[in-house]
Amino acid sequence: MVDGFKVLIVEDEKDISDLMSLHLKREGHEVTAVDNGEEALRVLEGCDYDLLVLDWMLPGLPGLELCKKIRRDDDVTASQVPILMVTARAHASDIVLGLEMGADDYLTKPFEIPVFLARVRALLRRTNGKQEEASKRMTIGELTIDVETYSVTCGKKEVQLTPSEFKLLWALAKSQGRVLTRERLIDLVQGEGVTVIDRAIDTHIFGLRKKLGKCADVVETIRGVGYRVKGK
After folding, report:
1. What's the pLDDT at 193?
2. Domain count, the chain
3. Of 65, 145, 222, 223, which alpha carbon lies 20 to 30 A from 76's?
4. Of the candidates 76, 96, 130, which is a domain's last residue?
5. Is the pTM of this model over 0.85?
6. Secondary structure string (H, E, C) spanning the chain
């Protein structure tokens, strides 16, 4: 387990917020908790966080809108923070919508604390993984992926990706020419011990291609199997 990360909880149900805070602090994390989206934006502007735990149903600014704003607004400095959405909305269409708006993982209420902590650990491993993969850079056609700066460019244009999208692209790039199944990509992106529906991977790939623009064709679909990145 990696400890010492900074986590922001945005949850208006105090009992749930207090419970999540208690267990995160027990794991050694520094936790800040707020109960509305507007306050979350103010807090995010003043501090860099390693993880955002976000409730969908919030007073004022809804969690889904907050998630979208964080991902798309250049003025929000935390645009790359991993987001775990926690909500009572459990329908498949809600899960897909949450992922499309920029969430990296989705946990439905009510949930067991061990499952919540497993999701948190999986997302935080990505943050820690940036340091482990430092100084790595790969170019495929006009697409450049730089793990040291956690950046992607297509030609001269910088591409803003969520942590999940970056992780997917890097995993595929490292396996150039080889097909990665959805199950393998789930393991690489979500971490061991965390179950994710196949459709979530397809949603992330769709969002990734859309953002890559003219470089989108480097990611190929192998029908019925998974995905791969073209060779250099």
Report:
1. 42
2. 2
3. 145
4. 130
5. no
6. CCCCCEEEEECCCHHHHHHHHHHHHHCCCEEEEECCHHHHHHHHHHCCCCEEEEECCCCCCCHHHHHHHHHHCCCCCCCCCCEEEEECCCCHHHHHHHHHCCCCEEEECCCCHHHHHHHHHHHHHHHHHHHHCCCCEEEECCEEEECCCCEEEECCEEECCCHHHHHHHHHHHHCCCCCEEHHHHHHHHHCCCCCCCHHHHHHHHHHHHHHHHHHHHHEEEECCCEEEECCC
